[in-house]
Amino acid sequence: MKNKQYPIKSGLSTAKLFWPEFKVVDDLVFFGWCAPDVIDFDRWHDKTEIECSFNHVHILDCFSHEASLSDEPWWNSEHPDFKAACEFGKLWAEAISYKLKKEFPERNFYIYYTEQDNPIVRFHQKHVNEAKYVSPETWEKEINCGKIVIHVV
What we know:
The protein is α+β, with helices and mostly antiparallel strands. The chain has helices at 8-18, 47-54, 59-62, 80-103, 140-144, and strands spanning 22-25, 28-31, 56-58, 109-114, 120-125, 148-152. The chain is globular and about 50 Å long.
């Protein structure tokens, strides 16, 4: 049986997404493609908010799909494409956690997968005296059913 073949450029694009480049700006870590050149710290509540804001990716925005709806909630959560985006997001969050650990072994990170309205992956460092983006105690039900996944590295 022959393996299914995909265009090599699609494979390379997906590999770069799964194994992204990171950039450090003012001691904050960002996906390379969205890192700001300068950070206006006065504009933000804290470092966690900065990293979470820049480092959040809506999975459905990365791929063509047929899960869109014309009105709120904007996504058909029962559509196979939405479910595929959820599975991709969970796998991608795990891959990012490995990459961050490999590149920044001296730093601690939280990597999140959430699917409340659109599957999203985001991350931030553990900053002293700052709250995590998602508190496991607050979202216990969603974590237990896999709608939120938190990787700690």
